Amino acid sequence: MIYSKKLAIIAALLGFSAVVDAAPGVDIVANETPIHTVKNADAVAKIPAGFKFVEPGTLTVAISLLGSGPPFGLYARDNKTVIGSESDIARLVADGLGLKLKLVPTSWEDWPLGVSSGKYDAAIYNITVTNERKTRFDFATYRQDTLGFYVKSDSKITAITSAPDIAGKKIIVDSGTNQEAVLLAWDKENRAKGLAPLQPVYVTDKAASTLAIQSGRADATFGPNVSGAYQAKLTGKTRLVGIVPGGWPKTANIAVTLKKGNGLAAAVQASLNGAIANGSYLQVLERWAESDEKIAHSEINPPGLGD
């Protein structure tokens, strides 16, 4: 069930019933119970000598909240505890490093400056590794990145898989994301061939996105596939018409994002690899229906979008 009047209103705006609490196979109530992992001696040893965390003994992590929605971030029944796949991954990282965890829900626009300035030790915000971002941040990967095009269930659109498919269409996309970069690159190709231009649609939240799709003001949404798949299963009002790798035309991964050159990436990578090895990592992905995007091991600053 939805846990409060506030969430019930959000549920209605998103297009699902207040008596439905999760996509099939996802038990929100059970997922309130934290998944922990053991302290990882190798990871702890890789923390740079004298490293100053934002708060001593604590890993302070910027994460998303209801703007991203499940499976990434939402409130538990107490309306204050953050749950979701991103908070679960943050907990595994902190546990492996032998640290307490402090989660700071914030906006997408805030995390880059927050990480660079030292306001946060890390950001876990469905952030894709890109060539441009690697000039400013270090990354330790934890999930594959796939992007999905979703349309209204009764839409006449059957497939969006390459540049010509977006010509002349109105597509919802978040500003400053790798999915926007993919769309703009495709649109540039189309314009060079004389095809109709793309009309990007920028909205403020999931409710506005849902309203735009269901009312016909937009033809499709383009974003993280696990999020689109979750909502499609939950509501039955949208369907998948195409998947694109997040590093188009190459693959890319989602990663824990850290201040460039501060030396913490190796420790975070070791913590993630420990969780992968002992199975707690897969537990997290499976309970949020993200296991299709699992990785075999974490990498530091691998190739990404633009490489």
Automatic annotation (TrEMBL):
- Signal peptide range in chain numbering: 1-22
Gene3D superfamilies named among the record's database cross-references:
Periplasmic binding protein-like II
Which residue ranges does the record assign to the Solute-binding protein family 3/N-terminal domain?
58-292
**Pfam families recorded for this chain?**
SBP_bac_3 (PF00497)
Its keywords, alphabetically, are: Signal
Q: From what superkingdom does this record's organism come?
A: Bacteria
Give the CDD domains listed for this entry. PBP2_MidA_like
SMART domains from the xrefs? PBPb
Matches recorded under SUPFAM superfamilies: Periplasmic binding protein-like II (SSF53850)
Which family does the record assign? Belongs to the bacterial solute-binding protein 3 family.
Any idea what this protein is called? Sulfate starvation-induced protein 7
From which organism does this entry originate?
A: Serratia ficaria
